[in-house]
Every structure is written in structure tokens, then in C-alpha cells.
Amino acid sequence: MVHLLPIASGKGGVGKSALAVSLAISLAQNDKKVILVDLDLGGANLHTLLGLKNNHAGIGNFINRQINDVSALLQDTGTPNLKFIAGDCLLPGTANMDYLIKKSLIQKLSTLDGDYLIMDLGAGAAYNTLDFFLLTHNSLIVTTPEITSVLNAYSFLKSSAYRFLSSLFSATSAERKFIKKYTNEAAAGSETSFLDLLDDLYEEFPDCAEHVKKELELFRPQVILNNGNDSHDLEMCRRLRALSQKKLGMGLDFIGFIPHDDNVSLAVALRTPLVVSNPSCKFSLQVKAAAERIMLHNYNYSSESFDNNAEDADLEQLGHDFSEGHI
């Protein structure tokens, strides 16, 4: 069964798409069968980063019902073990697919043959983006050390937490209506929080408490800090973790600390990923390290052996690897 890995960001310009491509290549180089899908609907550009022409049918053709077989959208990338599905942002309506099309797309993507299905999502917290992000408990979010980026990452995680909670109940259930009413009041400016909502939900519907608590404990996104300058930038990771734990009760696993490298922009212009053109540079080494942590995370998560009480051990290791240039 293919392992789904949606990749999101709270805002644009954090290097999410370049990282999605780099991680996909790194996983493929680890003898994993990888499928990279451009789900940045309305702004698809992964073909450019891969050095491919935008002349192949993609997700837009499926959304517009021009094609039914998602596997027919697969194209070679020139990297062994790596296939690609383009986004087709030029087709009208691609960014606004209806629920049934989205459900069908998710089902068909989930049945593709591979070890990893990496989904590059659009920036921000649109419902379609959130729904793809929530396909797994341990999806990936990319941020940078800037405070605005960290706060946008938190805002995205907050939106995903509310959306995740709602998804645990049927659309017509009393619990879903309760959550919707609560979030509408929060949007209107009332002093409420996600944890307040949980407390009130458990009080109103005590029979659901055990199930909800178990699901929320499993919901543990992975985080990559991109464009780092030195190990002091890890303080922003600690702030994001503390904020998510305090306000959302959500644990985070930091799996990558990627250094700033001016050659990343040059690689985009040259349409050749830096992990291919310069595999020994610090950027490439840290991306490869993140890919290895993704594989380890997947194994540990599947076997339910992850240490949820590790606190800052992952950040300390990332800082050490960053400083020493280790994999």
C-alpha cells in the first residue's frame, strides 16, 4: 500500500515545492518507488522544477472529466524510481473541484502502485488543501525561521486541527453541528480556543471522548524548517512546538533543518534540482537526511513505537547535524 505524504505550507515563498521535488528524488535514490503529484491547484509548477515540458495530461484533465484513469497521467522524470503527475493549472475549474471529484481523485491516487505518493499542495488553508493534508496523521508542513512564516504555519495547523476534528463525525451528526456552531462563534471574535472546544465537546457528548482523544493523539504532523542560517533558528521550531502544544494540544515531529543556499534559485532557473546537480552540497545532504527521517518516521509510526515524549531531542539532533554537516 502506498504511503501518502502531503506537503503543505502556511504561506507561499517558503520553498515548499522545491523541497517536495528534492525529497521525492532523495526517496527514489533510496530505492523507493515514488510518485510525485502536483496538487498546487491553480498554481502548478512542479514540471518546471523537474525540467519537464508542460505538455502532458495532468490532474486538471481528471478534474474536468477528460480522463478517468489516474495511472494514465503518470510520466517519467528521468530519475529512476520517480514518476510524476502534473497539475494542469491552465484548465479552468482545476482549483475548485467539487466534493465528488475530490473523493474520487483521493481514492484513485491512493491505489497507485508505489512506496510513497508525495503531494505538493497549494499554500494556505483552503478546504481542498486541508482535506488533502488530512489524508494522513503525519503529513508534512514546511516553514522558515521568519516569525511571519512560523505564525502562518501555526495558523495552518490550527485550521487543520478544526477540520480534522470535524471529519471524525458524519456531516449530519449533532457533534458536527456543535463544532460548526463553536467555530462560527470563534470566527465572530468570542474568546474560545481549540482546547476549550474539546472540553465542551466532551462534556456535551461524553461517549465520543475516548475516540476523539485517541485520534487526536495520532494526529502528529511532521515539520521541516527551510532556509535556516544557523542553529539559533531552531528557537523558532521550539516556539512553533510550544504554541501548537499549548493552544491545540498537538505534537509535532521536526524531521528537517535545511540550510539557505543561493544555488537553489539557480537550480530552479536551470530546471535541474540541486540534489541532482550538486548532491554533496549541504542543502542536498540535509534534504537526504530529512528523507531518511521520513522513512524512519513511517516505519516507527506504522509500528506505533514513536516516542511522543522526546520533546526537544529531535531539535537538538537537527541542530547538531546542521552544524556538523552530517546525514
Uncertain parts: 301-310
Report how far apart the termini are.
28 Å
Query: How can the largest sheet be summarized?
Result: 8 strands, mixed
The largest sheet has its strands arranged as 3-4-2-5-1-6-7-8
| Beta fraction | 5-15%
User: Could you say which structural class the secondary elements and strand pairing correspond to?
Assistant: alpha/beta
Radius of gyration, in Å, reads 20 Å
- Strand tally: 8
Mean pLDDT: 89
Order of helices and strands: EHEHHEEHEHEHHHHEHEHHHH
Task: Summarize the structure in words.
With 327 residues, the chain is of the alpha/beta class. The chain is 49% helix and 13% strand. It has 14 helices and eight strands. It has helices at 16-29, 46-50, 59-63, 99-110, 127-133, 147-167, 174-187, 194-204, 209-218, 234-248, 263-270, 274-277, 282-302, 313-324; strands at 3-9, 34-39, 75-76, 82-85, 116-121, 140-143, 222-228, 253-259. It has an eight-stranded mixed sheet with strand order 3-4-2-5-1-6-7-8, with helices on both faces. The longest helix is centred in the middle third of the chain and has 21 residues, at 147-167. The two termini are 28 Å apart.
